Amino acid sequence: MVKVNVKKSKRLKFGVSVSGVQARDLRGALRMTIEGIEYGFPAKVEDNSLVVLVPPLDDIISFELNEGQKIPATLEVIANEIYLVPWADTIRIEKPIEVAARITEDEVSEEKEKPVVKMSLTEDDDIEDEKKKVITEKKPIKEEKALKVKPKKISKLSKVLGA
Fold this sequence. Notes:
Layout: E1 2-5, E2 10-15, E3 27-34, E4 37-45, E5 49-54, H1 57-60, E6 70-79, E7 82-94, H2 125-137, H3 143-147, H4 151-161
Parallel strand pairs: 1-7
Antiparallel strand pairs: 2-5, 3-4, 3-6, 4-5, 6-7
């Protein structure tokens, strides 16, 4: 069984022994029958062998071939007007695993996105009570502390405040 990758060309070399005819008088072809359609690829004579170049099958067959699919094939030779089939077998299809990646570019807006702030307000009576407690706990300022302030500092402060 011959394995053929559907994405690549395959060079098949068949060794032949010729008797009763000159090798240069041979004509041949590799024949494959796929889905009822016959495909033929010419064979060239080279040093007591027939060489067939099978192009990538994906390039010549319009339908999908499956991994492991078996295709009947024959090597046909014509010598002195006599038709011969010195080789017949199956070709097993191989499909390589392919992974393709491409870069996609998203357009970026020139304007910067404004930050979004979400806020929720909940009212809790206990918090209000704590505020009231804080207010009631404050002590009034004693006049003694107010009298200890130096007059120069007060005058500078009044200039800053515009008084």
